[in-house]
Structures are given as structure tokens and as C-alpha cells.
Amino acid sequence: MVYDDEEGILYVADTGTSRVLKIDTKGSVGAGYIDSWFQDGVFTEYTGSTVEVVVGADVMSKPSGLALHDGILYVSDNATGTLFAFDTDGFELARQTSNLGQGALGGITIGPDGMLYMVAISQNQVVRLEP
């Protein structure tokens, strides 16, 4: 997931249902505490958020990594080895299929140098791209 602090929007890769969600957190209020699955802490539950599917299953198979930079949402698709670029409303701006193959792409982030970094799982490497 990646959070847009200025807009109060949380983007979540919902890998299990092949989509990316856009959660507007501005209307959220704390609704109590819940224990974590592994009993390693306590989480706060929030209600009142607006949830929208910003990228659907018709576009990608297994969204895995998310990065946000200058209004562009980058999403890696683990199943296809494809990197996507969307605007924040889910309009596809570009896509590039890597030569790493299926199951190869993991998490992604934007580094302090403005470059896009991707985990290449099959290669045990971190790959740097210019966004």
C-alpha cells in the first residue's frame, strides 16, 4: 500500500481479487481496537472511509507493489511481470513488461533520488528504473 498524505488517500494492492483500491481516509473515525492475527500488537479499526476500485481485474492479475510519485501511481503485476503507470483516478498512462518473467516482480518504491526501485524476486535483485 501507499499513502498520499496531501490528499488523505490510501492505495491498496488487493492481490487476491486482482485490483487496486483507493480509500479516502478523510472521513474515517476510530471505532475501537482489534488484536493482530499473530498477537504481535493491537490495531485501531476505522470506519467511515470511502472505498473505490481504481484499477480492476480486467487490467491486471496480481498487483503486488505500489508507488506514488508526482501524481502517478506505479503498480507492479507479479503474475505477468508488467509495470503499470496510472493517474490517481486509475486511467492507464503506460505499461512495460519486464524481461524477468511471471512471478518476478514484487514490491516497488520511489527512492530519494526520484528513481523507481523494483524487487526482482526471481533474480534476487533490486532493479532501478527512471520514472
Number of helices: 0
Mean pLDDT comes to 87
Low-confidence stretches: none
Shape: globular
- Can you give the helix content as a percent range? under 10%
Structural class by sheet pairing and helices: mainly beta
Number of strands: 13
Largest sheet: 4 strands, antiparallel
Order of helices and strands: EEEEEEEEEEEEE
Percent of residues in β-strands: over 45%
Distance between the termini: 18 Å
Adjacency order of strands in the biggest sheet: 1-2-3-6
Rg of Cα set: 16 Å
Can you put this structure into words, describing what you see?
The protein contains no helices and 13 strands. It has strands at residues 2-4, 9-14, 19-24, 29-35, 42-47, 50-55, 63-69, 72-77, 82-87, 92-97, 105-110, 116-120, 125-129. The strands form four sheets. It has a four-stranded antiparallel β-sheet, with no helix packed on it. Strands 7-8-9-10 form a four-stranded antiparallel β-sheet, with no helix packed on it. It has a three-stranded antiparallel β-sheet with strand order 11-12-13, with no helix packed on it.
Highlighted features:
mainly beta, four-stranded antiparallel β-sheet, 13 strands, 0% helix
Topology:
Layout: E1 2-4, E2 9-14, E3 19-24, E4 29-35, E5 42-47, E6 50-55, E7 63-69, E8 72-77, E9 82-87, E10 92-97, E11 105-110, E12 116-120, E13 125-129
Antiparallel strand pairs: 1-2, 2-3, 3-6, 4-5, 7-8, 8-9, 9-10, 11-12, 12-13
What's the short story on this structure?
The chain is mostly beta strands and 131 residues long.
